[in-house]
Design goal:
GOLGA; GOGA2 protein; flat; coiled coil
Length: 139
Amino acid sequence: SKSSDEIKQQNSELSEKVHSLVSKNSAMKLDMEDLHKKLEMAELMIQQFSNQAGSLDANQQLQMALEEKASLETQVAQLSESLHQLQAERDQYVEKLKEERSIWQQRVQQLSEQVHTMAEEKEKHMAQIQELEANVTEL
C-alpha cells in the first residue's frame, strides 16, 4: 500500500514535469517560429539592399540614408511638439476641472446650508402655528 502510494506520488510528480516540459517545448517552438520569421525578414532586407546597391553607388545610398534620417528626425520633432502641446492642453483641462469642482463644492455647501436653514425656519413656523392654534382654541 505504501509503495503504491509512493508510486502514485512519483507518477503525479513525473506527470507534472512532463506537462511543464510540454509547455516549455510549445513556448520554444513559438520562439523558434518567430526567429525563423525574423530571419526571413532579414534575408529579404539583405536582398533588397543588395538589389539597391547594384543600381546605386555608395554616395547615392549615403545621400538617401541621410535624407531619410533628416525626414525621420523632422517627424520625431513634430510628434514631440504635438505631444508637448497635448500635455499642456491636458494640464489646462485638469486645472479647469479642479476649479469647476471647487465651485460646485461651494455651491453644494451653500445649498446644503440653505436647506438646513429652511428646515429650522419650518420648525419655528410649525411651532408658531401650533401656538397660534392653541391661542385660537383658548379664545
